[in-house]
Design goal:
The protein is 44% helix and 16% strand. It has 247 residues and is α/β, with parallel strands linked by helices.
Length: 247
Amino acid sequence: MIIDAHAHCDVRFGWVHTPDVLLRVMEEGGIDQACITGLADVPGDDPDAYDRFVGALRAHPDKLHGYLRINPWYGEEAKALFRRAVAEDGVRGMKLHPTTIILPPNAPAVIEFVRLAGELGAPVLIHSGDEPNALPLQIAKCAEACPDTNIIMGHMGGVFFFEDALRAAEKHPNLYLDPSGNPRPDIVRKAVDAVGAERVVFGTDMPAMHPNVEKKKVELARLTPPQERLVYAGNIARLMRLPGVPA
């Protein structure tokens, strides 16, 4: 069983990541299920974004699970939308992209939403990388302020800040590492050595990236079979509370 903890499904900015495209790439890469986000922050400038996202989940409930990509600038409206998404529309997580919302992860407005996700039992996927608003040490401050919320650090700091990502996760037990998109061939091994296989999740960033690239990084990590099962499926199944998947 392989569950992609970081995938995308949407049509926006010239990207055509429809469910059909995503499912084709999943089949090519041997991915059984994927946890997806859209490409628009909601609420926001795309009034159809929420319906597109929920429509993809409803069309493929056995394959696709969702993090709703939230825009904290909309305050109570956004909070109400997320509550509805979890209670009524099958959404299991929250996505925050600090670059597009123009707020760092440790901003008070962001922390409010991360705490809300924790109250609802939903993990939060936060993009990290080289951008000024998406640095691992900023996410560490968010994790410290929200100890009851499980936070997945997408891309675990990118090319230049992966060491900060490792240090942040070592310090904060509610931080999980997602090495997707990091080009270092040893990055999965480093993540597992730092925090244990129990806090590393497999992600691909597909369909922009192909799963076979990310699977090679897991292969090079030379994990034990129990570690591999956790990284490939068990950890994200537990975090997203996926039915029928051994955690």
